[in-house]
Amino acid sequence: MKGLSRRRALGLLGGAVLTSANAPIPVSSASKFERGKRFLTARSRSGGGHGGAILSENGDLLAEFDLPARGHGAAWRPNSSEAVIFARRPGSFAVVLDVMTGQPQTVLSVPADRHFYGHGCFSADGRILFATENDFDGERGVIGRYDATDGYRRLGEIPSHGIGPHEITLMPDRRTLLVANGGILTHPDAPRMKLNLIEMRPSVAVIDAETGALLKSYEPPSELHQLSLRHLDVRGDGRIVAVAQWEGAKLEQPPLVAVIDRDDGLRLKSAPCEVAAGMRNYCGAVAFSAGGGRFAVSSPRGGLVTLWGGDGDYLSAIKLDDGCGLAANGKGFILTSGSGIVTASNRSEEKHHPGIAFDNHLCPLQA
Amino acid sequence: MRGLTVLIFGFLLTWPLGSGLGFAQDAKSEAGPDYAAIVQATVTHHIRPAYGRMAKASKNLALIVQAACRTDDGVNTPIIAKSFMDLVTAWVAIQHVRFGPVTDENRYERIAFWPDPKNTTSRQLAKVLDKRDQTATSAESLAKKSIALQGLTALERLMTMKPAGLREDSVFRCQYAQAITANLVRMTSEIDVAWGPDKDFARVLGQPGPQNPLYRDHREAALEVVKSLSGGLQFLHDRKLKAPLGDSIEKARPKRGEFWRSGTTLEALDANFESLLELYVKSGISAYVKKADRGLDGTLLGSYEQALMTLKAVDKPFIEAASDKTLRPKLDYLRFLAEDLHLRTSGNLALTLNLSLGFNALDGD
What we know:
The complex is a heterodimer.
Chain A: H1 6-19, H2 30-35, E1 38-45, E2 50-56, E3 61-66, E4 71-76, E5 82-87, E6 93-98, E7 103-109, E8 115-122, E9 128-135, E10 140-147, E11 153-159, E12 165-170, E13 176-181, E14 203-208, E15 214-218, E16 227-234, E17 240-246, E18 252-253, E19 257-261, E20 265-269, H3 273-279, E21 285-288, E22 294-299, E23 304-309, E24 314-319, E25 323-329, E26 332-337, E27 341-344, E28 350-352, E29 356-365
Antiparallel strand pairs in A: 1-2, 1-29, 2-3, 4-5, 5-6, 6-7, 8-9, 9-10, 10-11, 12-13, 13-14, 14-15, 16-17, 17-19, 19-20, 21-22, 22-23, 23-24, 25-26, 26-27, 27-28
Chain B: E1 6-7, H1 9-14, H2 35-68, H3 79-92, H4 107-111, H5 120-130, H6 139-142, H7 152-160, H8 167-194, H9 200-206, H10 218-245, H11 265-282, H12 285-292, H13 294-312, H14 318-321, H15 328-352
Helix pairs in contact in B: 2-3, 2-8, 2-10, 2-11, 3-11, 7-8, 10-11, 10-15, 11-13, 12-13, 13-15
């Protein structure tokens, strides 16, 4: 996909949508949509068809659409019926779609010397899309800024103040961005190589969305500098949770969860030993519950989703093979897996979608 | 580290000692092959011998480099080439194993830093040579320097660059080369020892369970083996063939090939196909597939053999062959075989073994 021109990407996409058997499934009734919450996720079909899906809060499949390659994270544009879904890193496309129908509308692409990391978020007014990107020749992370009111024209970029920026979100003050700099240097020409494991310096950076100035940076202690913080969430009072993938020795069990407050800084949290083993030193996603009283962490390699109190105290674990996508839903969480399962954190309901693999993330559509 | 990281030695100590190989025997799973047997055979007949050969080849190269440095030609002397090639092929033969001791202390990247899209190695090397950086002349201090400066890929550049004009430079290059080989000896010996039956990793791999930090059951350990096979084939296709060959003969970029500077690319490709075939057969996977899906096993074995035969017919160095009208089709065929092997291994083969390569467990997302 590298270097794919905008026109070609559109062509690919249009063709796929028009000819595919997986063309958007018509929405049966608008009321079904309006009643509850919906979630956007990337998904693949067995046999390799990549695309995305919109799920109801009950785990029903409301719409599906095709993408030119595997997708990853998504962001809902406030005050609109639009959302953006990003290519999996090191992809170079993102697709804007109508969340009422699942119909793709626009394809945006990065400059040839950048690629997306798979995540983005909007400004509070929905005007600007921020996307984490790799300036791979400059060996630094950047945040691309796109004007959603002008066909998603790229306005420019601000630094992410770290290497390997991954998940990004808007802080409750609506003026600052929060980004997890995983710390791992990669290059699209060496897709499996991590180029700087010895020098890794992951961080969670708080950045002025307007000027790009670094307001605050939280880092794990130096002896845990190989703790790649990649996913995060923030709740209304500004408390942050960030979760990690450990790049150090496999037989060590470092804490994988970081709770961050403005006053107390970064505090690392571990699950009890026997649960920690099941997390396989790898977290794929994190989200606070609706009230912020709990958060959920997925560990797809271990097939485990763990629940934690808002202060970072471990509560319980749920087994879900290849489970990764999660989001707050009602009083609990909605969870998805690579084997087509959508379930609730209290396991009250479970829907199976054979032939579908849900990708790492679930994006709430708060339309 | 101790304060924050829970080392799992407590867990390892409480583990029952298994058989001499470090493997517990348990009942066969109801569906699919005997996963424990696949893992055990892979370790015994593929992984341990390969790391053993690599440790030996490193020691041999260290001696040869030492000897070469007593001659006037220093690291440029052709006598190093053969031992270098032996170590390169020994490395490539186990490069697909990306789990276990080779991943500790970044050994994997320190042994050979490749692909190196920005030529970091040459840039950093130039600085080291320019100021005759003394920290590059002992294995201990070199081990703390940049990954790119430490392994086979750095040594290859030293061996193949224009001979130094100044005596001091040529002496420095020799000291640096000896530090590299001493560092390689240390790393490869450590890996070899760490795979021993009485060591932690063999037990972690061979005795899965709910308390095991890496593997829940034998099926998950066997998945690691199949992921190595599939990932090795993918790396072989994507990086070693597709990237340097380009879309057409005009678009060939053979210097993207592995170890092209020393002209070892074809030998490395040969070792690569050979070792993946070895893994497929000696793990017992081939024997199981033969019973479950005879056609698939035949196709896979046939493709490996075709690849090895095709390589034998390439009688010019890779960087020439990639743009040679007669030889190019052979390399294109090789690429096709690698791709086909990868797709069948990650698809039908994994299915036949009742394994899923995982969708959300991919690295770093």
